[in-house]
Amino acid sequence: MINKLLIANRGEIALRIIRAAKELGIRTVAVYSEADRASLHVRFADEAVCVGPAQGKLSYLNIPSLIAAAEVTNADAIHPGYGFLAENATFAEICHDCNLIFVGPSPSAITRMGNKSVAKETMLAAGVPVVPGSNGIVATVEDARRVAHDVGFPVMLKAVAGGGGKGMRYVEIPSELERAYATARGEAESAFGNGDIYIEKFIEQPRHIEIQIFADSHGNTVHLNERECSIQRRHQKLIEESPSPIMTPELRHAMGDASVRGAQSVGYVGAGTIEYLVDKHRNFYFMEMNTRIQVEHPVTELAMGIDLIKEQLRVAAGETLSVKQHDPLMHAIECRINAEDPMHDFRPSPGKIESLNFPGGPGIRIDSHIYQGYIIVPHYDSLVAKLISYAPTRTEAIARMRRALDEFVIEGVHSTIPFHRKMMDNADFIAGNFDTKYLDTHDWKN
């Protein structure tokens, strides 16, 4: 049993975890930086502890402060949410050493799947299709040239410790390789403290499809179908949905089985997501595994009729998996509402929310931590809300999302609401005809 849970995160995911814990009768402890003192997760937790100043590295990434907060409040478990320390194997190990339940996979699973080169080798050994490319890191630009020649241009350079598009470069022709290699290494070193790079064949017109998996400590592993995440800019997802418009029963079965094999090969326990690129012929290739709950987990929850956060807490406490594998029951679409100006290249827009109205009605869910008068600070991710619609069909889910976006009002800062409203009327989106480069190659504003 988990009696008291510390949430080592902030914003909407911290509030989401608090709500799930309270419904299970688990007491909650919020941690916050000085900039987040007025946040809703602080207000609604049973206890709250300040862990440092605004900068993330001095607060939400400060492992000694987080462990001290758990000890002083007598918490017996820590949920890392997503981002920050969610995929930090050292943090998970320290939690175990301090007799704290870490709501997530083992440190060894995080380590193996967190290094993208090792993850690729692991998946290949498990019989999961992988993108052709280097066998591990490419230590020199000469190695990079050799691999790129073998697999053929265009190629992608990727940081082994990467995420969110950092340390990633597209190389179309041989003359671009040397500069791209140096740039990718430098960016990776700056972002992750690890400049190692690997190479993959660039998959043209790819779809970004991910499979939600769940496993317990009793040997049970299931997949909970797919999420379509192809509408993105600079490798950051903007719209997710389930089921995917391109999915067939055969493809779902193949991707699901491959994902279960991959998870079992590392003794995975908890919630995880295996991400793939799918080409126009419906061939799929392993891209990476996220060893945590995803931002877009509500899409699966509403499509499948389950609560992934509650299941995380039950499995972390040693219970047997209660969710069952089945086809989606509903169609769900999530729009990420960021404090960004979509008309000016999605420029961040911090500031005070002067007026706010959340949409409602049938088939609408909002996950958010903002309120009227809330000040969006520039220190963290710009996500302020997740708007999710769900209905028996994709057509109905789009119509509900369109209606909800019309009701959604945020004044005082720019938001991505106008972008999403445009996309809900976009003929290609409605038809399901898009790939990961869609926003780069189409004028969505008109």
Instruction: Please indicate the percent range of residues in DSSP E strands (runs of 2 or more).
Output: 25-35%
Distance between the ends: 54 Å
**Biggest β-sheet description:** 8 strands, antiparallel
What is the count of structural domains? 3
Q: Briefly note the CATH topology name of the largest domain.
A: D-amino Acid Aminotransferase, Chain A, domain 1
Helix content range of the residues, please? 25-40%
CATH architecture of the largest domain: 2-Layer Sandwich
General shape: globular
For the record, what is the CATH homologous superfamily label of the largest domain?
ATP-grasp fold, B domain
What strand order characterises the main sheet? Answer: 13-12-9-10-11-14-21-19
Computed CA radius of gyration, to the nearest angstrom: 21 Å
CATH class of the largest domain equals Alpha Beta
Alpha plus pi helix count: 15
Question: Which key terms come to mind for this protein?
Answer:
Dna Ligase, domain 1; 446 residues; 26% strand; alpha+beta; 15 helices; five-stranded parallel β-sheet; D-amino Acid Aminotransferase, Chain A, domain 1; Rossmann fold; eight-stranded antiparallel β-sheet; 3 domains
